[in-house]
Amino acid sequence: MTGAALADTREGTPDTLPAPETPAKPPGLGELIAPIRGRLTAAILAQSAAAVCSMIPFIAVAELARALLAPGGPDEGRAWTAAWTAVGALVARLVLYAAAGVLTHHADADLQLDLRRRLARHLGRVPLGWFTDNSSGEVKKAAADDISTLHHLVAHTALEVTAALVAPLTALVYLLTVDWRLALIALLPLLLGAFFLKQAMSGGEEVTARFFGSMGAVNAAVVELVHGIAVIKAYGRTSRAHRAYDDAADDFSVFFRDWIMSTTRASTSAALALSGPTALLVATAAGTLFVTQGWAGAVDLVPFVLLGPAITGSVMGLAQSGHAVQGGLQSARQIHALLAVPPLPEAPAPQAPGEDGKVELEGLSFSYNGATEVLSDIDLTLRPGTVTALVGASGSGKSTLARLVPRFWDTTAGTVRIGGTDVRDIAPGDLYRQVSFVFQDPHLLRTTVRDNIRLGQPDADDTAVETAARDAHIHDRITALPRGYDSVIGEDAVLSGGESQRLSVARALLADAPVLVLDEATSFADPESEAAVQQALSALAAGRTLLVIAHRLATVRDADRIVVLDGGRIVEQGTHTELLDLDGRYAHMWALQQKGVAR
Q1: Which ranges of the chain have pLDDT less than 70?
Q2: Residue 212: what pLDDT?
Q3: By C-alpha distance, which of 181, 214, 211 is closest to 283?
Q4: Residue 351: inside a domain, yes or no?
Q5: At 593, phi and psi to the nearest 5?
Q6: Strand 435-438 relative to strand 515-519, pairing
Q7: CB 44, CB 162: distance < 8 Å
Q8: What range defines the domain where residue 299 resides?
């Protein structure tokens, strides 16, 4: 990235970095399968040869009949040649078919591994703020369901389409050598079936897009329902919570029913036209006419009776594969769109931040949509060894301001510096070694308690892990688990909200970053342990920079500085005592909360 381009990105970055609109034609399929194109081509060639071999036994039987029923008497040599050719073709088909299947499945396995790694790497480079406005169900669909759909396209459908095209072409070429007139008549069911199939698949691309969109909505509704089920049941809102899922499922059901009903007549007509009995009836009727009129010999009717149904039967399989192809193309679009989400811009020559951990916010403004500013003209300096608390009403911009420090988004205007270096000039890996954060809703991985704590310091020894747990006042709870620190979250370690929050605090303590951002990090802590955790955080402040978001003012009354936000602007700042003496917004908030405590 050039310096000018980097400067352009700093002029304004929206809160989310949405995936670009899906183009009319899928730009991603060719790119996605590029790593396996050679093996896929080899598999298609092997399948083509296998499809030719699958028709040879039928041709051999027809030739055997013509040899045995020849006007001059049976041609024994020709008959044996036809028989052995059939046997050889069956063996060759088996080998080639197996080779094609092995190639596509190995290629598919490598493709899935490559795509999942690419998605994981790319999502790791996407701004963390992007995930707050994008459904985990949609990400899961692209990273799991859409890749599985590509499995069918690569491992199965590619071979099925190849066979459905090559086999009837092989049969048609042979029939043209026997009697071109009967061969053309044998194509009539095929032409009629293709006409009806075109009607049935009309608007297929749009319908497939709607199908995947409806499925994505159902996925998102399920994920949302599962994530919120505990709160939903606690407040007796189960029926209301199911409404979003029910609505999504109903919408999908209505769409699917209407789609099937609109294509039933054309699909049924196509299936009838392309069925074996129809092809056999046409071949027999036309052949009988030709034989009785003396236009062809009776023995020439045999190839058409044998191979006529093979032509139409293969094409019916091709029609059924059409939906799989459309699904694969749509999945490729979704995966490509996810991979096209702009990553967080990185400086061409990253700079190392200073070691003092000082945080400076200068002239900072931020907008989520480029139109309405959430933060305006923020000037704030957070010094090492101090605790700075952000307070204010909901929607005042506290969490947004705190998340600009670890660069969840880039500022619309102004600068965020850590250790004297603009965060946009710091390599992401270095930035996250400078800043740890504990959020109001802690997320624990489904692994051992020990590994959860040392997530930021994978090489930390057991003593360091235990020390961090003690400082966060969670050690005693961990040792009470069935396997202590080796207990697995979600299996034999089921923690309450407050316990999960303290485990997240222990993780941040062990990471030992110079800057620590706490978003109501003790909101779930019980009153007995809250004071102890606050003491641990105060001890941690020595030599470090703490930025704390608080709703309960009592938890930050001892902070070195309290910053009051309102409407995205700093309206007051000072110590607890200084702000009370001002008798302004903070004093009013304090009085209201104290009145609530008294009650």
Answers
A1: 1-28, 70, 131-138, 140, 200-213, 215-216, 219-246, 259-260, 262, 314-320, 322-323, 521-542, 596-599
A2: 65
A3: 181
A4: no
A5: -70, -35
A6: parallel
A7: yes
A8: 18-339
